[in-house]
Fold:
Amino acid sequence: MKILSSKNSAISSSMTLAITAKAKQLKQQGVDVVSFGAGEPDFNTPENIRTAACERITAGGIGYTEASGLPALKAAICEKLKTDNGLDYKPSQIVVSTGAKQSLFNTLQALCNPGDEVILPSPYWVSYYELIKLADAVPVIVETSAGSGFKPTAEDIESAVSEKTKAIILNSPNNPTGAVYDKALLEAIGAVAEKHDLYILSDEIYEKLIYGETHTSIASLSPDLYARTIVINGMSKAYAMTGWRIGYTASSEAIAKIMGNIQSHATSNPNTIAQYASIEALTGPQDTIEVMRKAFDERRLEMVKRIEAIPMLDCVVPKGAFYVMVDISKCIGKTFAGKVISNSMDFSAALLDDEKVAVIPGIAFNADRYVRLSYATSMENIIEGIDRIGAFCSKL
Ligand code: PMP
Ligand code: GLU
Structure:
């Protein structure tokens, strides 16, 4: 048999999805697992949104829509971007996709030529790295550390720029670190993008889940930044709609056209029922967002307090999203059940095996001295799960 695609054979599977699925499977088998894996709200999708979907199913009219999304949904997205982010877009600049993941895929496909470099601050969300490779481009990592709250400086970004650099990926609030980039930092990074003529992919999917800081969309800072930024957002996190699979981009018309064309062949329109439900999400009452945000905030503080009480662990207080990066450096080199814990995979595997707690190894985010815990889970799980992690650490 001839060899399979070399490029695609080199793509790894998503560790965040794999571990979340494994924890769910163990639970179904009756194992008492506490999962901190899932990067998805544990709340139900708000009732008005579910009702809108049911009404659409009853009414019918669930055929294909325009490949790049329903005009009425694009109009609702434009309205949202204006109200929340101070951004003026026409519906022709919006592409609605099957989750923000497809939006990111489309964007990188639309921008990159083989060998182009894309700057990626690290720790980074697992899929960016592979999505850059899928676009035949090369990820160029900019390391950040806990000491700087996992935020790069504009100088760090600039030192990674080469003649081949095409774009920078920004993700604030950040998955996995919870870092939030303030206006001054975004202006400084924006100046680097302007100086070197770079595109900016601004993944703002966690914009509503922010604690004591303000979200700024880099595209709103100047007409030049507006022109070179592709805003990526979606329904999954703010509206607890992960399974509905609706994300979107806002960009120049030229980029939107390429993305719409790609999508018209790859998947056609995103799910029609979910698109109608998303119109209700964006235009209906918004109060459930605040209810969920407050609950996440309480869980965040509880989780951080409990982690800080475990002598073997450290963490930086996250300012957004729903994750805590836990520094396991003090556990590395210790022995558990006769085996040395050499890295984040060893730690996570032993923890799951021994105490039945699922966490995401930091290696998924290029941070092998960390594990990521999601606090999109109940307070009871947080208390029980961190107790178990504490018990595990004391056995090392
Ligand atoms: N960006 C980030 C930073 C994420 O954490 C996620 C989570 N899945 C996504 C994009 C994609 O979300 P979705 O495809 O569910 O819209
Ligand atoms: N983004 C979430 C996470 O990081 C969901 C899983 C995924 O899409 O990777 O856990």
Summary: The pocket of 4'-deoxy-4'-aminopyridoxal-5'-phosphate (ligand 1) is lined by residues 39, 99-101, 125, 171, 175, 203, 205, 234, 236, 242, 247 (CB under 6 Å).
